[in-house]
Amino acid sequence: MPKAYWxxxxxxxxxxxxxxxxxxxxxxxxxxxxxxxxxxxPFHRLEGTVRGRNVVIEFPSMQHAIDCYNSPDYQAAAAIxxxxxxxEMVVVEGV
Length: 95
Hints:
The chain is of the alpha+beta class. The protein has one domain: Alpha-Beta Plaits (2-Layer Sandwich), CATH 3.30.70.100. The protein has helices spanning about 15-30, 60-70, 70-85; strands at about 5-10, 35-40, 55-60, 85-95. Strands 2-3-1-4 form a four-stranded antiparallel beta sheet. Helix 1 (about 15-30) packs antiparallel against helix 3 (about 70-85).
């Protein structure tokens, strides 16, 4: 079964509130086997528009990734994130 990855591009509008998102989301990530591969570090734009923060999270499978997003724990965190940041998020299956 191939792994899956959340890819998120985020502009944080309220850094203090975003900390609440990170803390609230942590149990959902732990429960669904998430491993952070990139978490907002330096980046270099090659093409197109960019956002200030880029995140890549590995999950054991596509189902784990989707279940994490849809979990009550993560949805509570997502509501906080949506107050504090603008983002695009996708789940992609690995090879």
